[in-house]
Inverse folding.
């Protein structure tokens, strides 16, 4: 059974720091991995999606890497800002085929960036 | 603008009542999903639908029901049989046409918070 773990559960840093958020999964047979951001009381916003054949994806100050063999993904946030404060979740799509539609979510990392 | 609309944002229910949460999307997505989010837990899949007039149970379907009569709409009914319905409910959609542009990315609505009094 696929399990997704995110460490740390919470993180508080001063503005300007570079951050690494971790996501690990137990079954390396994934189709893709997606990182989301969730503000309090809101829905999830997709940040980056990495296909199983890719090693990393970048969007602005965000960089996500994927190492299937070790069952790990990292989300790197450069030059953090107070506006980055939110909960960050990762999710893996089960199976090798796009017909397997279910995503398995981690419990998230709650990030606070203070001025 | 294209997106997913959930309503109502907040809902209060008395014990023993059924309630229906609305989810509408104008993204022309084939697949739609309902998730439940509880504090300290990851999102859990309730039901999903890959095509109109078809839907599948997720991991925690007991006490819930859905319908998919239109591509744009996937309402969720929380029945009185759901023993612990107080939660944050999230609707999502994705395309099933996988090519270079459409990668199966999941898009979410803003959520509906249900409280049982």
């Amino acid at each position: 059974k696929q399990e997704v773990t995110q460490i740390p559960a919470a993180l508080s840093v001063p503005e300007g720091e570079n951050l690494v958020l971790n996501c690990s999964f137990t079954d390396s047979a994934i189709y893709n991995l997606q990182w989301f951001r969730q503000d309090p009381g809101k829905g999830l916003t997709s940040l980056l999606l990495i296909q199983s054949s890719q090693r990393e994806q970048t969007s602005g100050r965000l960089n996500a890497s994927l190492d299937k063999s070790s069952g790990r993904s990292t989300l790197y946030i450069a030059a953090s800002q107070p506006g980055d404060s939110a909960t960050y979740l990762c999710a893996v799509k089960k199976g090798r085929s796009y017909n397997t539609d279910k995503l398995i979510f981690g419990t998230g990392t709650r990030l606070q960036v203070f001025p | 603008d294209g997106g997913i609309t959930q309503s109502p944002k907040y809902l209060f229910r008395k014990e023993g009542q059924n309630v229906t949460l609305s989810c509408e999307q104008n993204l022309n997505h084939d697949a739609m999903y309902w998730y439940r989010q509880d504090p300290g837990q990851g999102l859990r899949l309730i039901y999903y639908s890959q095509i109109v007039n078809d839907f599948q149970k997720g991991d925690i379907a007991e006490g819930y029901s859905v319908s998919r009569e239109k591509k744009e709409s996937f309402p969720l009914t929380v029945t009185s049989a759901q023993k612990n319905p107080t939660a944050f409910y999230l609707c999502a959609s994705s395309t099933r046409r996988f090519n270079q542009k459409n990668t199966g990315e999941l898009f979410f609505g803003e959520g509906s918070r249900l409280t049982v009094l």
Remarks:
- The interface with chain B takes residues 4, 31-32, 34, 36, 41-46, 49, 51, 89, 91, 93, 98, 101-108 of chain A (CB under 8 Å).
- Residues 84 and 113 of chain A are 7 Å apart (CA to CA).
- The mean pLDDT of chain A is 91.
- Chain A has no helices and eleven strands.
